Amino acid sequence: MSILIHWVHHCHQTPLAKLAGGYEDYPDPSASELKKRTIADQEGVAETQLLPGNGASELITLIARYLHGKKVLIIHPAFSEYESVCRNENCTIFHHIVHPPHWQLAKAALLEEMDAVDAVFFCHPNNPAGVQYDRSTIDWLIDSCEQSKDAINS
């Protein structure tokens, strides 16, 4: 199972901004104007595979709630919120750490680690180092997760 997180920035006119004659950058909490069909078509996925949210923190928290009590693997370096929200949801957390200067995944070790977990968190580009992986590495990781039936969150 794969989970694609697609950030959509939506400008919403609040009543106060309307009175002032301007627009305010504010999320639409119900995603009422979100065009899920357009995003689904663009990304080549079904509408049912999309989860609208108001930014990374909300979506990461929702995913962690879904994974409550599960085993998760976090590929580091990574945004610290993945571990924080997974701990709050009583997940068992495993780590796969990549090191400078090449930041390469240890694929053989990673495959073994993925066999023991229900989900994988992978940042691209990673945070805080900003490393970008080539497409073949990302495709390998997605394929490996699908074969091991892990959910991948990026």
Give a written overview of the molecule:
- It is a single chain.
- With 154 residues, the protein is an alpha/beta fold.
- The chain has 6 helices and 4 strands.
- The protein has a 4-stranded parallel sheet, with helices on both faces.
- Strand 1, helix 4 and strand 2 form a beta-alpha-beta unit.
- The radius of gyration is 18 Å and the shape is globular.
- The two termini are 13 Å apart.
H and E string: HHHEHEHEHE
Rg, alpha carbons:
18 Å
What structural category characterises the helix and strand content?
A: alpha/beta
Question: Which runs of at least 5 residues are low in confidence (pLDDT < 50)?
Answer: 1-14
Assign a percent range to the helix content. 25-40%
Strand-residue proportion: 5-15%
How many individual β-strands?
4
- Largest beta sheet: strand ordering: 2-1-3-4
Give the biggest sheet: 4 strands, parallel
Shape: globular
